[in-house]
Specification:
The complex is a heterodimer of chains A (about 270) and B (about 450). Chain A has about 270 residues and is α/β, with parallel strands linked by helices. Chain A contains 12 helices and 7 strands. In chain A, strands 1-3-2-4-5-6-7 form a 7-stranded mixed beta sheet, sandwiched between helices. Chain B is α+β, with helices and mostly antiparallel strands. Chain B has 13 helices and 17 strands. In chain B, the strands form 4 sheets. Chain B has a 5-stranded antiparallel beta sheet, sandwiched between helices. The chains are: A alpha/beta (about 270), B alpha+beta (about 450).
Chain lengths: ~270, ~450
């Protein structure tokens, strides 16, 4: 299988710049980076991709067995890095992709040299002595919301849209398809995300890590980022003045600046 | 808050001009009664239209903080304006699942596309929750910067209840489909086991002969009524039979089972073909009733090796069955005609004619059921027919039992959906002398291969 096509891999930005791999979280696809890409492109080589099942990836390559665990998504990251021959790249993981990045760095330490965690949470569901912000029932409610909302998803249009990023005549469908995910894929990704527990992975992170939390985040509250920062050896913590859970959309300049500052510091 | 005030001023300007437009249109030709109604409408101020709209309406800052909210929505929430404005974020008004969905899906869509339509969510209420359909647009400033999000919410209780029913129905249908599929698989495997019990799992080795058989099951959901067997009757002789029970399904299969074991038992008592078929006729006729008229056609034969020459004498009798064919080494094909043989099991006493021949090295006797000759072929769906089978057999010369069955298996596959009925073929042949078959595999390996092929077919 052609990994570039499978994961709808797009490489852009400065060809000889340091490499940033931008990994989207649960919900949408690589479009999430649309506002931050122009800011970063002058200085960095940017690798964008969709996880299999999301965006315009190849839906046929999706299987529940692989993508019911975060390890399956981490394998996507590793395979994209291997396909491009990346070494010691910086993986910028938004939301659940922060923890996917931790797994990817463990699987392929030679490919991933540092991690940027945007709005990370190692566990969303409360546990004894740990506050993730959600109960198990809350997660079931989210699954209910997914069931009730097949935003822009159409089983008949999907085969056209997915895996055909180069067909301009599909532009309308593509625009409408943003954030549209096969309900079956979304359900499995949601469960993999919100029922995961990556806390035990954090002390094993050996690469330089930036924990970037948002000031007002309903999904990953500030104290969760504190937990991540405390658990990942030698990590740095910054707080972005960004509303909501998606700083790359609500504060693209500040997000790019924090990433740049970290990458320069690591390089020194 | 300055943004909020700006928004309010904008909203007021907009509604003022809207009022102006209506005022312009109201003059002149409107009849008095409609005029009264229209005057009442005019009294509905823009503020009133907003506050008491038949939908919830609110504006938030880009960070979600509620800047303005209408009375309808406050009533739904059971909250006062003071409790909400500047104090709550839109997502605070939602259930947690809705909040997660908003942050992961709706918020990115609003940032990148500027609008969302008809998203199903639930509002938190003092004593429960209210299903709503949410639409939102982003208001942008002159410089393209997003300023505000305007959100409308429609009461979706009925719609959501209806959708929940549809989803339940869909789930139930899906479960029923899965169950039906499982049942069908179970039924098919049970049928396959039963079907195999009606046929020998493998043919015995007959010293000095090559034997092969093939069974084509027309349906995995239906038991067929064709049968065959080959077995030793004493130290030197072998009996074989092949036939077709009238009908299909479990009743036919029960008769098939009866036929098989009756013929085997009868052969132990008296292996002459006419005697075996007569016994079978008596047993079947005893079961034959007008409500379940079961009968069969069958060929029963006896093989006896001839001393010295490597040949076999074949004696066979037939009850209403297509004649066996003998493929001679030289290419001639003969039908072993048994005129007058009656269907087995229909009449209390039945006569069966007997035919005899000798198989010399290179000769093969072929038995088949009429599924083969009644297959539909070609564009005009013509019957394949006895003549074509003879011609086909002739074209195979020189052949052997395994090679002939292989060729017939290919022929049957080639019929595709033209082959509507179950079909059994059984071939018994005397191998040609070594000198003539130097390039062919050894007889025993060819038999084994054939049996595998046969078993595989039955498993389908």
């Amino acid at each position: 299988m052609d990994v570039r096509r499978r994961n709808n891999v797009i490489v852009t930005g400065r060809a000889d710049g340091p490499v940033l791999v931008l990994a989207h979280g649960f919900g949408c696809d690589q479009e999430m980076w649309r506002l931050v890409v122009p800011v970063l492109a002058a200085e960095y080589r940017l690798v964008l991709f969709d996880y299999v099942g999301c965006g315009r990836s190849d839906r046929a390559s999706w299987s529940e067995a692989r993508y019911q665990s975060l390890d399956g998504y981490a394998l996507d990251v590793v395979e994209v890095c291997a396909e491009l021959g990346l070494e010691r790249a910086t993986l910028v993981g938004h939301s659940v992709s922060a923890m996917i990045g931790v797994r990817a760095a463990r699987l392929a330490p030679e490919r991933i040299g540092s991690l940027v965690m945007l709005a990370p949470s190692p566990r969303y569901v409360d546990d004894e002595g740990y506050r993730g912000g959600f109960s198990r029932e809350d997660i079931d409610e989210l699954l209910g919301s997914l069931e009730a909302n097949h935003l822009g998803w159409s089983a008949t249009a999907a085969p056209l849209i997915m895996g055909n990023p180069d067909r301009p005549e599909l532009a309308d469908e593509l625009e409408r398809s943003f954030c549209a995910t096969d309900p079956a894929v979304a359900r499995v990704f949601a469960r993999a995300t919100f029922l995961s527990d990556s806390r035990s992975e954090l002390p094993g992170v050996t690469v330089p890590t930036l924990v970037a939390r948002c000031a007002d985040d309903a999904i990953a509250p500030p104290e969760v980022a504190d937990h991540v920062h405390a658990a990942v050896p030698g990590s740095r913590l910054v707080t972005l003045e960004a509303a909501g859970h998606c700083p790359q959309l609500s504060a693209p300049e500040a997000t790019a600046e924090a990433i740049g500052e970290f990458v320069r510091a690591v390089a020194r | 808050m300055s943004r909020t005030e700006r928004d309010r001023r904008t909203a007021d300007r907009t509604s003022a001009s809207a009022t102006q437009e209506r005022g312009d249109g109201a003059g002149g030709a409107t009849p008095p009664s409609a005029d009264a109604a229209f005057t009442a409408l005019l009294e509905d101020s823009a503020e009133e239209l907003y506050e008491r709209a038949p939908c919830g309406y609110l504006s938030t800052l880009m960070d979600g903080t509620v800047a303005r909210i209408n009375g309808t929505l406050l009533d739904w929430l059971g909250m006062t304006r003071e409790e909400v404005v500047s104090r709550k974020s839109f997502t605070d008004l939602l259930t947690v699942g809705g909040r997660l969905y908003y942050e992961t899906h709706v918020s990115p869509l609003l940032r990148l596309r500027g609008e969302v339509n008809g998203v199903a969510m639930e509002l938190r209420q003092p004593d429960g929750r209210l299903p709503v359909l949410v639409s939102a647009t982003v208001k942008k400033g002159g410089d393209g910067q997003p300023l505000l999000i305007r959100i409308t919410l429609f009461d979706a209780r009925d719609r959501r209840a209806y959708e929940a029913e549809l989803l339940r129905g869909k789930l139930a249908a899906e479960q029923a489909r899965v169950r039906a599929e499982e049942d069908r698989t179970r039924l098919q495997s049970a049928l396959a086991v039963l079907q195999r019990s009606l046929l020998p799992t493998e043919l015995p080795r007959v010293p000095g002969m090559e034997v092969a058989a093939h069974y084509h099951a027309a349906s995995r959901d239906q038991l067929g009524g064709d049968f065959y067997d080959l077995f030793p009757v004493d130290g030197s002789r072998w009996a074989f039979f092949l036939g077709d029970v009238c009908g299909k399904g479990p009743e036919a299969a029960a008769v098939t089972s009866l036929v098989r074991y009756t013929l085997r038992a009868a052969a132990l008592h008296d292996p002459t073909p006419e005697a075996a078929l007569t016994t079978l006729n008596t047993v079947l006729h005893e079961r034959y009733t007008s409500s379940d008229p079961r009968y069969c056609t069958a060929v029963f034969g006896l093989l006896r090796p001839l001393p010295g020459e490597g040949g076999f004498e074949v004696e066979l009798a037939s009850g209403g069955h297509p004649p066996a064919l003998v493929a001679r080494r030289g290419g001639e094909v003969e039908a072993l005609s048994t005129p007058g043989g009656l269907l087995v099991g229909v009449l209390p006493t039945a006569g069966f004619a007997t035919a005899r021949t000798v198989l010399y090295p290179g000769d093969t006797v072929l038995l088949h059921t009429d599924g083969l000759t009644e297959a539909r072929t070609g564009a005009d769906r013509a019957l394949y027919g006895d003549a074509a089978l003879r011609s086909f057999t002739r074209d195979q010369a020189p052949t052997s039992a395994p090679a002939l069955v292989d060729a017939l298996t290919d022929l049957l596959h080639g019929f595709g959906d033209g082959l509507g009925d179950d079909t059994a073929v059984l071939a018994l042949g005397v191998p040609a002398h070594e000198a003539d078959t130097a390039t062919a595999p050894s007889p025993s390996s060819r038999i084994r291969r054939d049996l595998r092929a046969t078993t595989g077919e039955n498993n389908q």
